[in-house]
Amino acid sequence: MLSFYNQLTGKKERFESLVPKIVKMYVCGVTVYDYCHIGHARSALVFDVIRRYLEFSGYQVEFVKNFTDVDDKIIKRANEQGVSCETITAKFIDAYDTDMGRLGIKRATKEPKATEHMAEIIELVDRLMQKGLAYEVAGDVYFQVDQYQAYGRLSKRKLEDLQAGARVEVDERKRHPMDFALWKSSKPGEPSWDSPWGPGRPGWHIECSAMSIKHLGETFDIHGGGMDLIFPHHENEIAQSCGATGKEFARYWIHNGFVQINQEKMSKSLGNFFTIREIFEKSKWPEAETGEMLRYFLIGTHYRSPLDFSDKSIEEAKNALNGFYDLFKRLKESEYRATADEGMIEAIERCKVAFREAMDDDFNTPVAIAELQRLKSDINKFMGQGLSTEARKIARVEFQLLGNNLGLLQFEKWQFVGKSRSGGIVVRPGTASLTITTFAPTVTVGQVSPETELSNEQIEQQIAERLDAKKKKNFAQADEIRKSLASHGIIIEDKPDGTSRWKR
RNA sequence: GGCGCCGUACCCAAGUGGUUAAGGGAGCAGUCUGCAAAACUGCGAUGCAGCGGUUCGACCCCGCUCGGCGCCUCCA
Q1: Domain end: A244, A260, A276, which one?
Q2: Which residue is nearest to nucleotide B35 (CA to C1')?
Q3: CATH code, A79
Q4: Do A74 and A85 meet the contact criterion of CB atoms below 8 Å apart?
Q5: Domain range for residue A88?
Q6: Which run of H or E residues covers position A65?
Q7: Which residues in A75-84 are b (16+ Cβ under 10 Å) and which e?
């Protein structure tokens, strides 16, 4: 039985969907005014894995992930560049799709945009006005926080506490300092829509309420996003939605932890972030492999814990994944013995159970991965005893099936070709706190191997020559070829039958 | 000021009131191999920041201390 931590209740709870076999899930996407960084990648990935696992568990998942395409930052960016907001948003939505695609993140079933839901947004604001939960001041509409008794139930804060520490200047026109904008009157030159309160645009929080209600209904199962959205964004969404409908909004709330650099939150204001595309561009590995390494690294830590990004962690992920792909390569080789077939089947069954237990327990991906590692090790042992060709195929399929939950182990093989070897990611730590705030992280060359690439044909040619030398017991020459290939990053593995396999 | 999180071996990282504290990476030793690689085997925290307390028993519960961080403002 699946259970996971519900931020709303502050406890790990057994999950039961509102409608049997169907899960309705809404996740806050991004504001499209810039390229996504690894923090965005983590969030998208966490919910991608959750979605995959829910599907694996037999649910049909209605997964809505929005794009915020009306916002101050977008307007600012458009003005800076002298282009329209649409130009900016179209560009970064496109970039989002590309970057997330490279990480193997599946598309949501619906990806609504705020600008396409003005009617629903206005209607929702109007409902709140009708109910006396909102008020208008000179074309702006605010939600009146103290009219919603349960305000603070998600973030576990009291209205009084919030006021005490408020660092923002209080807008005198508000009835309560924490009241937030549902509708903002537009200034000249800003995107605007007609409304009962004059031309304007929606506040940040209302779009998510409007879109989730429209696409998933007034009450739905799961709402997710980054930790930082708990307050005020999600708190406000709850207030607006419940206020308007009088019903429960999302029943389970899931929030992912941050990606950090040198123990600090990765953020634009600290200037310590890496964009996803910059990592792909600077990676010394091909795109598909880089994507899988990143994925492995990002889900190697439980989704609610912080995780520190570094070049070393990517390298570790690569080495860990290599173990699987090395095994897969050997699983493809034929064998007539079936000595250990039975044991292998047992091991696979054990792994399946353990894998599910791990994922059922608050989506514990690190443990799920550990189970796959254990299976890898088991199968290596069985292979030494003798696994039939059929058993080998079964093993490969099982890795693929379980790995699919994590979006891992789906490739036929890892192929380190077609990309120049001149990248690598290095995270340079700041030396003092003062440095860190102004520190711009650099993505630079890691391990440089300036050797020119060899084509597969060239490599095969060399290996044939070496084989020949070996047959003639000319080991000196054979070793010479091995050394030469090694200098190009090619590793040769001799098989028992005298032939060789190789890898980059 | 309010709310909250974290501190597990060289590194990453699970975990739990009572088995041998998962798994990975790196390292070392061995088996195998013409050499090598891979694989396999073994080694690696008498201890889970520190100090107290509760308990028959705590890494896990409580308190304090030290260290690091997050939210309360746009933020994945």
Answers
A1: A260
A2: A479
A3: 3.40.50.620
A4: yes
A5: 3-137+144-160+203-260
A6: strand A60-68
A7: bebbeeeeee
Q: Is the pLDDT of residue A235 over 50?
A: yes
A76 touches strand B (CB under 7 A): no
Instruction: Identify the band that residue A424 occupies on the pLDDT scale cut at 50, 70 and 90.
Output: low
A232 touches strand B (CB under 7 A): yes
Element (H, E) at A279: helix A276-282
CA of A401 to C1' of B40 (A): 26
Q: Is the CB of A326 under 7 A from strand B?
A: yes
Q: How many distinct structural domains can be found in chain A?
A: 2
Residue A27, domain member (yes or no): yes
Residue A217 inside a domain? The answer is yes
| Other C-beta atoms lying within 10 Å of the C-beta of residue A367 | 17
Instruction: Give the pLDDT of residue A87.
Output: 96
pLDDT tens digits for range A204-233: 999 999 999 999 999 999 999 999 999 999
State how far the Cα of A167 lies from the Cα of A222, in Å rounded to an integer: 31
Radius of gyration of chain A (CA): 27
- Would A417 be classed as within a structural domain? no
Confidence of residue A268 (pLDDT cuts 50, 70, 90): confident
Within a domain: residue A185? no
Quick one: pLDDT at residue A493?
87
Distance CA A412, CA A139 (A): 59
Instruction: Verify if strand B has an atom below 7 Å from the CB of A220.
Output: no
A443 pLDDT higher than 70: no
Task: Mark which of A260, A278, A309 sits at the end of a domain.
Answer: A260
Q: Is the pLDDT of residue A437 over 60?
A: no
Mean predicted confidence (pLDDT) in A59-72: 96
Q: At what angle do helices A72-81 and A85-102 cross, to 10 degrees?
A: 110
Question: DSSP string spanning A117-170?
Answer: GHHHHHHHHHHHHHTTSEEEETTEEEE-GGGSTTTTTTTT--HHHHHHH--SPP
Q: What does the mean pLDDT of chain A come to?
A: 89
Predicted pLDDT at A448: 36
Q: Is the CB of A316 under 7 A from strand B?
A: yes
